[in-house]
Sequence to fold (326 residues):
Amino acid sequence: MIVPQQVRNLYNKESTNIEKTEMKVKETLINYCEENKGFAFLSRKKDLRSLAEKIETGRYKSWSQIDDLFACSIIIPTLDVEDEVIKFLTDVFEVVQIKKRGDSQKPPYEFRFDSTRFIGRLKLIPELESEINILFEVQIRSAFEHAWSVTTHALAYKTENIDWKLLRLAAQLKASVEQLDTLILGFTESASHITEHKFDEIDIKSSISKFFKDKIETQKSIPEELKPQDWSRFTDNFYNLLRAANSHREKMGVFADSALNIIDKEIAGITINEFSRSVSLLQFLIGILSKYEFLPNDLRNYSALITPELEIIFPSVQRINTVFEY
Fold:
């Protein structure tokens, strides 16, 4: 591709400022995404040929209007956090324009790219005054939108051949993406319309979760400090412990109820101040169940986390042979 010399000269002249802008924006947004688990980040600096093609679209009157010499994307798990991302961007950068999804005219039967885009520049720093003239773009995409974009862009929109079928398929996939994002936003409501089937494992895990939530949040008989970070993960871990301990192959529902009864009686006999804060809730439960010889010495496919602190509180855990090795 032939790039006009004037475009090449201007691009080269501004390359240093573009790189400085890129560095500052990436530093800010990568830190932000790392602080918010579930957010991802990617970026690119527009190369010379892409810039020339963009100018040839005829949509830009001047160099100062080009808004994606540097562009990046923040990928969010669900669209309901989009507003907080926009707020962060407006706090740390100077806002030029915000093009939100749904702002543009689009017929209901058309499906195309329409992610929210933040156009901004770095806030004025006296010694770097020239930098503020470089516009950059931040796209805010859902995880589903991102998957659609990266998989179809080259196949349908950056291809050598103009093909109606390829564009049609890309649009159909985009329709699926919109449907998925809508389902996620109304996840709980959507789930309420699903016919529920009985499944013993889920019923048992639900009972386990409710039992310990009630002890911590309602009865307050277990210290708040022992509350798991992830209830789903804790419940899975406790269920796996019970499954490993069920050497006689009792019905898991009956076996789990027996374990919870033992734990309930033990907790009822101690005050909240007598709980050790040096072991996790799951470790504490291992200690209780080992004290009452509910756990066998060898747990099937389960390595218990036994620490010196737990051994002091419950010496009985020392008889467990299948333990995590440091």
In short: The longest strand covers residues 70-76. The chain has a mean pLDDT of 88. Residues 5-142 form a domain with the Beta Polymerase; domain 2 fold (CATH 3.30.460.10).
